[in-house]
Specification:
Layout: E1 7-18, E2 21-33, E3 39-43, H1 50-58, E4 65-74, E5 77-78, H2 84-91, E6 96-99, H3 113-117, H4 119-123, H5 129-142, H6 159-170, E7 177-181, H7 189-206, E8 209-214, H8 217-223, E9 226-231, E10 234-240, H9 241-246, H10 251-258, E11 307-310, E12 313-315
The protein binds adenosine-5'-triphosphate (ATP), iron/sulfur cluster and magnesium ion.
Magnesium ion is lined by residues 50-51, 101, 181.
């Protein structure tokens, strides 16, 4: 029996209009988040389109969109084509909340922290201010803050506390799915570890499903059941965290893993030669071919489809194309 995935993204495109052409930030991405209490990591270099993917899922788009296309099924219901008012009323915050990249630095300095995080509850969630405040105070405690943080101003909180408050805010309407875009990249390592522990706890205790976006594959693998690797607007590999860590099939995933510094390994971390391509004019064929150590003729002209080297693992690389 196949179950309906919680979130099923099919052929999603988000291109931006730019003076010099269309920036193909999300270019035909398909992936699924199977069930509740699952975490899916989305990893890749800076500029590969991770934040664009997060925004495409919730259709929170800038004004210079050149192409937005694809389907997003949430528990079987298509949401990418919903009218804006319905998306806002029924989906954002309520079903899927997004903690945008750098959001913890976007608190309004002159409004008390709690008042800022209940805004979606009173605006979209028809909660009374009193009920929303009670919920916010409970959530502050759940994320390891005191209920008193409600009346504090953002400048009175440390970076880690602000990020906890952001996470509490994402939970205000009890969404089953939360997308977190680089939630720890502005924090120092020990605070980062505390936030990762908090996310693990929320996943276990609340059955929260998380899409965790990070440039750090090691960090993502600590929380995530599955990992998706993006390169130049495309999802080049996806599989269980174990498959990606122990048997990555795509040469780019292999390079990403070898770029992690290891404590118990005398080898120096490798860096990936060359630069990511310009998303206005990505290379033809496999987008990684200009940097790939295994490139061969076919890679330069034909874009590889996803192959399945192991059950549940998919990678877009011609090396996996077995002769019939
Ligand atoms: N509104 C926009 N208009 C034009 N180009 C944009 C816009 N937003 C993002 N881009 C470009 O789209 C590409 C993907 O950007 P995105 O922010 O999604 O990458 P990212 O993987 O999240 O990077 P980072 O790791 O640095 O956060 C980049 O080339 C970026 O410059
Ligand atoms: S398709 Fe070719 S260039 Fe692309 S990753 Fe595979 S071997 Fe390398
Ligand atoms: Mg980003």
């Amino acid at each position: 029996m196949t179950m309906t995935p919680l979130l099923d993204i099919r052929n999603l495109y988000l291109h931006y209009a730019d003076r010099r052409g269309a920036v193909r930030a999300v270019d035909g991405v398909s992936l699924a988040l199977e069930g509740s209490g699952q975490a899916l990591g989305i990893v890749g270099e800076s500029g590969s389109g991770k934040s664009s993917l997060a925004n495409a899922i919730l259709r929170t788009l800038p004004t210079n969109v050149a192409r937005f296309e694809g389907e997003v099924y949430l528990a079987g219901q298509e949401i990418a084509g919903l009218p804006e008012t319905q998306l806002r009323r029924e989906v954002r915050w309520r079903k899927i909340a997004l903690v945008p990249q750098g959001a913890m630095n976007g608190f309004n300095p002159v409004v008390r922290t709690g008042e800022q995080i209940i805004e979606p509850a009173t605006v979209y969630g028809d909660m009374t201010p009193r009920a929303a405040r009670r919920k916010a105070e409970e959530l502050f405690e759940l994320v390891g803050l005191s209920a008193k943080v409600y009346t504090r101003y953002p400048h009175e909180l440390s970076g880690g506390m602000k990020q906890r408050a952001m996470i509490a805010g994402a939970l205000i309407l009890s969404p089953p799915v939360v997308i977190m875009d680089e939630p720890t990249s502005a924090l120092d390592v020990s605070v980062q570890a505390q936030i990762m522990n908090l996310l693990k706890r929320l996943k276990q205790e609340l059955g929260l499903s998380i899409i965790f976006i990070s440039h750090d594959i090691a960090l993502a693998s600590d929380l995530c059941d599955r990992l998706g690797v993006v390169y130049a607007g495309e999802l080049v590999e996806i599989g269980s965290a174990e498959q990606i860590l122990t048997a990555p099939a795509h040469p780019y995933s292999q390079k990403l893993l070898r770029s992690i510094p290891r404590l118990r390994d005398a080898r120096m971390p490798e860096f990936i030669p060359g630069a990511p391509p310009d998303l206005r004019q990505p290379p033809p064929g496999c987008r990684f071919h200009l940097r790939c150590p295994h490139v061969f003729a076919r890679c330069e002209t034909e874009s590889p489809p996803p192959f399945e080297p192991q059950p549940g693992q998919h990678a877009r690389c011609w090396l996996l194309d077995e002769p019939p």
